[in-house]
């Protein structure tokens, strides 16, 4: 049991360290694809402006939320990194400290950029869903914009941010949560004067919030995309044009056969149910370790 615990903790430490590299390197390889996605989203946004749809000003709320997330993450990294550097200045070289701080900041920016991008696409789907029952514009126009945004969303989760999100945003954060709780909070090296206690709480809180935010935005985006079926049903009840009714029926049938799931790289499902399952596994492991330690005492 002791060997298994050591192996798991070492794996958690290595995963949290490797995740920072993957977040930066993977983004470099897919930078051109990200530029294409941003150009497509900008085109859709311009179409919404030309259609003079309601609710466009609500994008400001999303921007402020994303800005707050970015500011809080950066402040926590700067404060905790400063405390950590002061504690480790006699044990590590300056170059090693700078590399670790830079990797943490790059991972933070990568995570916040992903959250901002997903929030932006979720907002676009929300605007389209709100406009379909209003009959203010041609249904085919909103249908085309909807499929463009969905294709961008698939591309972001499948290739551009698929692996970094799985390894860096989820795997590394969960690994650091387990490693911090076990190594620094439950069983610290010094129970009386642990110099890492404050910084451990800060890192634990930040990593936990990041995981919750990621799963919440994934769950909300999935529900908003699937709400398109309800919007089409509402439009079909008030529509009298036979041609548009046929368009609604074809669109509705396609939506039924293409139920959207917020997945990363086509294999990691991100919603609240999966978050509860992941939390149960992590908590169960920690409880087993606590009972094992207590039995040894």
UniProtKB/TrEMBL annotation:
Q: Where in the cell is it found?
A: Cell membrane
Q: Where do transmembrane segments lie in this chain?
A: 64-86, 98-117, 160-184, 196-218, 275-292
**Its Gene Ontology biological processes?**
sensory perception of taste; signal transduction
Q: Which GO terms describe its cellular component?
A: plasma membrane
Location (main, coarse): membrane
Source organism, top-level taxon: Eukaryota
Any idea which UniProt keywords this protein has? Cell membrane, Membrane, Receptor, Transducer, Transmembrane, Transmembrane helix
Signal peptide (UniProt feature, chain positions): none
Q: How does it sit in the membrane?
A: Multi-pass membrane protein
* InterPro entries xref list: 7TM_chemorcpt
What's this protein's function? Gustatory receptor which mediates acceptance or avoidance behavior, depending on its substrates.
UniProt record similarity statement: Belongs to the insect chemoreceptor superfamily. Gustatory receptor (GR) family.
Q: What is this protein called?
A: Gustatory receptor
Q: What organism, scientifically named, is this protein from?
A: Macrosiphum euphorbiae (potato aphid)
Task: Provide the taxonomic classification.
Answer: Eukaryota, Metazoa, Ecdysozoa, Arthropoda, Hexapoda
